[in-house]
Design goal:
This protein is α/β, with parallel strands linked by helices. The protein contains nine helices and eleven strands. It has an eleven-stranded parallel beta sheet, with no helix packed on it. The two termini are about 40 Å apart.
């Protein structure tokens, strides 16, 4: 059961410690998460699951530092800039100090990364990587999106859900135990054949995928790939970016390929596809 609660002690004492996920949303100074709030949670409800979402980019390092060694913290979402070196460093310290952190979402709020600006660094903790079941990355950050960086960050064999959005390339990573995958590279761009090959190779490594959401990779779909994925796939969404120049047509599955999809993926419950149209949308 999810519930956003008042964090004053009397309210915390009245909650059932066995059935609540406590959600904190920090949007600005007036909604800042304080150390006292977190201490109350741990004191009165040590078995609750704490979901913290830091939606602003001010004082992020201070807010994160207050969460260190919090065994209730199971989910953390942060928004960072490429220049938030202190906050990025504190994120790592906090994440590695919270033993039950299972979901981590990182959004890079500006797309202004340039070489020579002192890129953010994710330090090597291969001796004790994060034990995440869910990792969500939105925005280009060299310290996060490469396969080697992800392998340093978390034990990829434990990942069940991976979302990589607005990044320049497909991570070179073996995440064979994924049950959910979402990939959408930088918007309004058309991938080259090498990118399609990387995506296809990535999908062949996924052995138990149940949910797949791809933007820009419809051309990767083939009968052999559908046969491989169809053994477990229940949700499939394929989308393409709109063509800005008008010189290229969006890739869509042919009627013949849709029939093949129906045969090769018998367990599908949800299917979302782009369709071909001319002059007006099909209603």
């Amino acid at each position: 059961m999810f519930e956003t609660i008042d964090v004053r002690p009397p309210t915390l004492q009245s909650l059932d410690p066995h059935s609540h996920v406590v959600v904190f949303n920090s949007w600005g100074p007036g909604t800042a998460i304080t150390k006292g709030m977190l201490e109350n949670i741990v004191t009165f409800h040590p078995r609750c699951h704490l979901d913290i979402q830091i939606c602003g980019v001010w004082d992020t390092s201070v807010t994160l530092s207050q969460m260190r060694h919090n065994h209730c913290l199971t989910s953390l979402a942060v928004r960072l800039s490429h220049l938030h070196f202190e906050a990025f460093a504190e994120l790592q310290v906090t994440a590695y100090s919270c033993p039950n952190l299972g979901k981590l979402s990182i959004t890079i709020v500006d797309g202004t990364y340039k070489k020579g600006t002192g890129p953010l660094q994710w330090h090597d903790h291969t001796d004790r990587p994060l034990a995440l079941h869910t990792l969500e990355l939105d925005g280009f950050c060299p310290a996060l999106v490469s396969g080697s960086a992800l392998a340093v960050m978390t034990n990829v064999s434990m990942l069940k859900r991976l979302s990589v959005v607005n990044v320049p390339s497909v991570p070179d990573l073996d995440c064979g135990n994924l049950s959910s995958l979402r990939v959408a590279l930088n918007g309004n761009r058309h991938h080259d054949s090498a990118e399609f090959h990387r995506m296809t190779a990535f999908l062949y490594l996924c052995r138990t995928l149940k949910e797949l959401d791809l933007t820009g990779f419809t051309a990767c779909v083939s009968p052999p790939l559908l046969e491989h994925l169809g053994k477990s796939l229940k949700v499939l969404r394929l989308h393409e970016y709109e063509c800005q120049t008008g010189l290229q047509r969006r890739s869509v599955l042919s009627p013949e390929m849709i029939l093949v999809l129906g045969v090769k993926c018998p367990y599908l419950d949800i299917l979302g596809l782009d369709i071909a149209y001319q002059r007006q949308w099909v209603s």
